[in-house]
Amino acid sequence: MIYGAITNSWREQLPSSTMKELVGQAVEKGAKHIELRQTCLGECESGEGPDWRPNLDGLKEVVQEYPNLTFDLAMALPCLSEKIDPLGDGFQAALAGAKLVGASQPHLRVVDPASFDAAWETPNDIPEAALGLAGLITEANRQGVIMSMENSKQPIRSMAMLIETVRGMVAADAGQGLGLCPDPTNQLRQFPDSDPLAELDALPLDMIKIVHFKQLRGGETHPSVDEGDLDCLKMRDILDAKGYNGAAIMEIPSDDQVFENLESSFQYLSS
Prior knowledge:
About 35% of the residues lie in helices and about 15% in strands. It is α/β, with parallel strands linked by helices. It has one domain (about 1-270): TIM Barrel (Alpha-Beta Barrel). The strands form three sheets. An eight-stranded parallel beta sheet has the order 8-7-6-5-2-1-12-9. A two-stranded antiparallel sheet has the order 3-4. Helix 2 runs parallel beside helix 3 (about 90-100). The model has no long low-confidence stretch (mean pLDDT about 95).
């Protein structure tokens, strides 16, 4: 796996630092991949909500400064709860940003923050709007971009069912470009009686496009990836056994010691 960081961990540092400086501090602590998350890109973004746009010139400077890193672009997009136009300016701008930062493997991670009444247990439970992913991945595939989906209110198994359903609606090559960003800790927070690691283990490898590590202790957010409510070492071992060799992001909370916490997270998972 390629251990990395996400820019929303740096909310406290953003007002006084440039994106290049913050990426550099993560690199010093051992990060090999950076997830560039909307709302936490400083000078490399503008606008909010549907008016958000990546600053391509700013992102280009960051990527060129760190040629040995890999990057993906992450955005909030209500594509499970609303119909999104694949040719709309917002989605097209996100694809352009993903292509700029992603080099030979552009990757756009999409998170819909919407809440739903219950976990989806059958394909009939999937909202009609969510099937609009078929149009989005078809357009992304046309431009050579893979997509990963996340929704913290749905368990991994339900999101996997969604991906399988949408894959059945599109061409095979486009379908293979659509997958998940599993985050077992999010599921544990939402469904404390569930077994998110078993659901992660059940995922086919080709569905895992990127993963997030984080930790809770007693149900409360912990500042680093360490021992706690989720067995993060077991999560690591499940991914290793599958042969997953993509990015593993430490989605740790913003903190004045965030870079020390990032380094300790890498050390824990490397133990």
